[in-house]
Design brief:
- This protein has 239 residues and is of the alpha+beta class.
- Helix content is 54%, strand content 15%.
Length: 239
């Protein structure tokens, strides 16, 4: 196959992929890719057909690629096209959505695991969303402090469900250390009967918070350990 035949074969395959219609010499000339005569193009198409790269569905039709034609096209002639660029753009967009969804799932899973390890509220900021996900509120409200003082329990519920905890976390400088906000230190009147343990994590450019909220008399040593362990697991997920 010479260079002119190679160019013709690639053009025929490109057009057939787009239209699913047999390609004739007239359409190739209209594409502006060739300065050959219609007769020359037809002769070259006959040669490509004789060599098994093209076939003619019926006498009055143009040519379509054979499996042999597609094989040589894939190996030798295929170049980046409009369709390929569109595919890459779509892939990039879906890839971002895929990682965002996976990052959100990892945050949810980390909170679930943390809530199973201690009888307090486990929470995390959700990647790519302006919200805090939490579990374990019912367990916390069963603690004696909240059973004996319904107003304290109401304050905790308001802070979590009203978005105040999310506002507080926006002002916290996060790193790998566990930070402690005990009583009035965390500046939320509703939950000054509580302590917060917070650490940071990163997933694909998102900086988030993972933490525990519970009564002042929580088991700080135990909660610090489980928070560090789950945070390390969440951080490892970014790879």
């Amino acid at each position: 196959m010479n260079e002119r035949q190679s160019k013709l074969l690639a053009a025929i395959i490109d057009q057939f992929i787009q239209t699913a219609v047999p390609v004739g010499s007239k359409r190739l000339l209209e594409s502006g890719m060739f300065t050959l005569s219609s007769a020359t193009i037809r002769n070259e198409m006959v040669s490509l057909e004789d060599e098994g790269y093209l076939e003619q569905p019926h006498i009055s039709a143009g040519r379509i690629p054979t499996a042999k034609g597609y094989r040589v096209y894939v190996k030798e002639f295929m170049e980046p096209s409009v369709q390929e660029k569109a595919a890459r753009r779509k892939f990039d967009a879906l890839r971002r959505q895929y990682f965002q969804r996976k990052d959100q799932e990892r945050a949810y899973e980390a909170v679930t695991l943390l809530s199973q390890l201690m009888p307090n509220v486990a929470f995390a900021t959700v990647p790519h969303k302006r919200r805090v996900y939490f579990l374990g509120l019912a367990n916390t409200l069963r603690q004696p402090e909240f059973q004996s003082n319904p107003m304290l329990a109401t304050g905790v519920v308001e802070a979590l469900e009203g978005g105040r905890l999310s506002e507080l976390l926006e002002g916290v400088t996060l790193d790998r250390r566990v930070q402690y906000y005990i009583g009035e230190e965390h500046l939320l009147p509703q939950i000054q009967s509580c302590s917060l343990l917070v650490t940071g994590y990163q997933l694909h450019g998102h900086e988030g918070a993972l933490g525990i909220m519970g009564p002042l008399r929580m088991d700080y040593a135990y909660n610090t350990t489980v928070l560090e362990l789950v945070a390390d697991l969440l951080r490892a997920a970014r790879d």
